[in-house]
Design a protein that fits this description.
The protein has 249 residues and is α/β, with parallel strands linked by helices. 35% of the residues lie in helices and 21% in strands. It has nine helices and eight strands. The protein binds S-adenosylmethionine (SAM).
């Protein structure tokens, strides 16, 4: 399957491709699950005002934001070359730190389905060179096959309903080159007797109805049989509450 590349040209500066302004009918709708479940976190204008604070995102991750961010970025490299895709915006300085690691000539694409999140990220990036933002659904990426050297998803999978999650995993494998890496950082089931196991279960069940899927299943369970990765490495953090999975295609 080959899809039209949205960003075949180099990125001279941060650009926001949002076809809302152009009336492009191919523009993805904000999915129902996001409206119903996460309006308070990502869609309401107040949500950006509230959550776009480094200390809040760090608190939500029990003080582990920087460690998990750096672990994800280190899996890609201290200096990042080639073309990188970040699937979905992240509150805090994740994307700025990623962009700082880009080597001359390297580029970063960030996609998100929510315009407010892309606008927020654009403000955070200011006029950073070689970063392009576009409005896309992770489960139906508008990039051609084998385009990216690496793809990163930071706490996205647990927010997706199972069918969207499976399609997203398939899509990121499609757009990464053979030999390229996909880095997932997300929730994971903590070890027995971990205090957060008992605190987080009701929180996640109440606020994030798809998140406990990541406690019950390995990320590899959403792979399809066609075109599996050649290598999968998993590491857990903070007593197992978080995981990093690196797939090499
Ligand atoms: C990466 S996730 C969670 C990140 C983390 N919890 C944080 O602190 O920001 C949040 C983002 O995913 C985006 N998102 C959710 N479903 C999506 C989808 N199907 N396609 C693209 N973006 C999606 C939301 O709009 C939101 O900006």
């Amino acid at each position: 399957m080959t899809k039209q590349s949205l960003s075949a040209k180099k990125h001279p500066e941060t650009t926001l491709r949002n076809s809302a302004s152009t009336g492009d009918s191919k523009e993805p709708q904000v999915p129902d699950y996001l409206v119903k479940t996460y309006w308070w976190a990502y869609l309401h204008p107040r949500s950006v005002q509230i959550f776009e604070r480094q200390w809040i995102v760090n608190l939500i991750l029990w003080g582990n934001f920087s460690k998990l961010r750096d672990s994800a970025l280190d899996a890609i490299g201290q200096r990042i070359s080639g073309r990188t895709l970040q699937v979905a915006c992240v509150y805090g300085n994740f994307t700025q730190k990623l962009a700082q690691r880009l080597s001359p000539g390297a580029s970063l694409d960030v996609i998100d389905v929510a315009p407010i999140q892309l606008e927020n990220l654009q403000k955070k990036l200011k006029d950073r060179k070689n970063v392009a933002l576009s409005r896309q659904n992770a489960s139906n990426l508008q990039f051609e096959d084998n385009l990216f050297d690496q793809v990163v998803l930071f706490f996205l999978l647990h927010e997706l309903p199972e069918d969207v999650r499976a399609k997203t995993v398939r899509e990121v494998l499609r757009v990464v080159k053979p030999g390229g890496k996909i880095v997932f950082v997300d929730y994971h089931r903590p070890v027995r007797l971990h205090p957060h196991r008992y605190i987080m279960r009701p929180i996640l069940r109440y606020l994030e109805p798809y998140a406990l899927d990541l406690w019950q299943n390995e990320i590899t369970s959403w792979l399809t049989r066609e075109d599996p990765p050649v290598r999968v490495e998993k590491q857990t953090y903070f007593g197992g509450l978080y995981q990093k999975v690196v797939m090499t295609r």
